[in-house]
Amino acid sequence: MATNAIPEKLIAFRVYLDSVDLLGVADVDLPDIEFMTESVSGAGIAGELDSPVLAHTQSMTLALNWRTITDNAAALAAPKGHHLDLRGSIQYHDAGEGRLVPKPVKLVVKGLPKKLGLGKLETGKAMETATELEVYYLKLTIDGEDRLEIDKLNYKFVVNDTDYLEAVNQHLGRG
Questions:
Q1: Total domains present in the chain
Q2: CA-to-CA distance for 70 and 67, rounded, in angstroms?
Q3: Which of 18, 75, 159, 168 is the most exposed place for a label (fewest CB within 10 A)?
Q4: Category of 87 on φ-ψ map: left (φ > 0), alpha (ψ -120 to 50) or beta
Q5: How confident is the model over 105-115, as pLDDT tens digits?
Q6: Whole-structure pTM value
């Protein structure tokens, strides 16, 4: 693909449980990655600075918004870790070639149930059921290349092949 490829939109995606079972029809609100910060002030600093803690993130939540309540939506309420694969295809416009090209995107998340909203009952309408998971592991792969991996329980924070917690692991006697 030419270097002037323009990412346009998500063509389609599917959500799988344990990499096998298709979960159903859902919209997904992906987690925000927000770093933990501490305000720093004092000599040598003109004011205050909210300094991020190296590779430590705040709570990350993934929400699945279902059309109706399903057995799979209910099963995600089980108080255990759940492994979800979100696989999609992103449309790029190759401006040099004048064609549309799909590229794969995959997001793997592991999380614990945080909330199950059963939704509402209204004849002829979607129930708006929602599942929220507290994400403790996340891995983003775009076009076959791993781009981001956050593993809160195993002290990993990898961006484009660089683990920003590698030295910290060594300091803690973990690596």
A1: 1
A2: 9
A3: 18
A4: beta
A5: 999 999 999 99
A6: 0.91
Rg (CA), the chain: 20
Q: Which domain holds residue 82?
A: 5-171
Return the CATH number at 43: 2.30.110
Label the pairing between strands 129-142 and 145-151: antiparallel
pLDDT at 36: 97
Task: Give 12-17 contacts, CB < 8 A, sequence gap 24+.
Answer: 12/88, 12/89, 13/86, 13/87, 13/88, 13/89, 13/105, 14/86, 14/87, 14/88, 15/64, 15/84, 15/85, 15/86, 16/84, 16/85, 16/86, 16/87, 17/72, 17/75, 17/76, 17/82, 17/83, 17/84
Report yes or no: 15 and 26 within 8 Å, Cβ to Cβ. Answer: yes
Q: Where are the beta strands (DSSP E) in 58-143?
A: 61-66, 82-94, 99-117, 129-142
